[in-house]
Amino acid sequence: LRDEGVAQLARLLTNDQSELRRLALPFVSMRGSGAAALATALKANQVLEELELGCNGMGPAAAAELGAAVGGHASLRHLAVAQNPILDAGAAALGAALQSNRRLARLELAFTGASDGACAALARALAAEGSALAHLDLCGNAVGAAGCEALAVGVRASRALRTLLLSANPLGPAGGVALAGALPRGPLRTLSVAGCKLGAGPCGRIAHALPESSLAALDLSNNAIGDVGAWALAWALESCAELKELRLASNEIEDDGAAELRLALAASATLALLDLRGNKIAAGGET
Predict the structure, then answer these.
(1) How far apart are CA 256 and CA 250, in angstroms?
(2) What CA–CA distance (Å, rounded) separates 285 from 287?
(3) Rounded to two decimals, what is the model's pTM?
(4) In this model, does residue 192 exceed pLDDT 50?
């Protein structure tokens, strides 16, 4: 299916009798006129609720056109544009569009080239009064410390955000510290920051914030937190009333860190899953 086929499908969205609620177009080329036709059709549509556009070759300009249509859409609740080279400019355009959209609850921007500029725009959308954005996926992008710090401001202001996925971004220690500051007394339930180069110190800050957070699932895998980070988490777990899943795979944790985590697991009233795969725990000592 190429641009002409996409344009034909798009015309279905403009039909006043259309009852189409979900449109999924993965692996469909949108390098030319197809994306523009779809954006135009969305402006006339009032009923579509889910739009999935993964692996379409969509670039920044097409994403900007899509954003102009999404900003005023009356019913769209789920937009997925993962694995499209929309880059920071395209992702920022979508973020800016959400500042005027009060219905979109789920936005997937994984592996799109989004960076710090997109995070600033998304932060403003999260902080906008009445924002419904509850699920934000930015995995596998180029978000650095500055973008994460901007995003943390939006997380603190949001009343709707429940899931934030940031794995495989170079957030670094400063990004980890910024996220820790956004956790207390917020609505966030799931946070994934696997492979973000956080290190032990920021992990300790996150651990300190956990008892005051609403997190039920936390993924800190592959962040080189070592025993120091493991100790900080272990000492916080007994005070966590919400946390059910803690993933710490491939984190250079050794026997001492694992022992503290096992004691914390036994004492926790809520923790049901503790992932320690790929660490430096002696045989017979794995949890």
Answers:
(1) 15
(2) 7
(3) 0.95
(4) yes
